[in-house]
Amino acid sequence: HLSRWTALPRARADGWGSPETWAQDAVRWFSEHHHDPLATDCRRMLKQLGAPVPRRGRGISQVPQRLLELGVTSREVDVLLLIAMRLPNADIADRLVLSPRTVERHVSSLLTKTGLADRRELALFAERLGLA
Where do the HTH luxR-type domain residues begin and end (predicted)? Predict the structure, then answer.
């Protein structure tokens, strides 16, 4: 999968091979083997190809019991971890291969579920939970 991943940009540019199929296979393999940066890069390539981008279905983060009780999803935990790093929505969207609007929805949902007022409080909350 790694060799095809490295060949994807050239195959795409020169019109040879099956870059869409290779990228879809690579996303699955890299995700299953916890190589998240490579899986993210393959999702980005699929998006550039105009191909369907496989959804993770759920985030990659484990949800602590306290957050499970609040109804927080693993994708929202993915967002919360990046909020704790003080990243803006555009950077979070880029890292998770989401639209900025989707990130806004996740942030809004986190604020509602936790009863917190703003991103700063979310970041502090994540730190208190030992997520940051």
Answer: 63-130
Q: Is 110 exposed, middle or buried (0-12, 13-18, 19+ CB in 10 A)?
A: buried
What is the C-alpha separation between 36 and 42, in angstroms, rounded?
10
Predicted model pTM: 0.60
For 117, the enclosing helix (H) or strand (E) is none
The angle at the Cα of 100, spanning 98 to 102, to the nearest 5 degrees, equals 65
Per-residue pLDDT 10s for the chain (132 aa) are: 888 888 988 998 999 999 988 988 888 788 778 788 888 888 888 888 888 776 555 666 778 878 887 888 889 999 999 999 999 999 999 999 899 999 999 999 999 999 999 999 999 999 999 987
Closest by Cα among 28, 58, 30, 23 to 44? 23
Query: Which residue ranges form the domains of the chain, and what is each CATH number?
Result: 2-49 (no CATH), 65-128 (1.10.10.10)
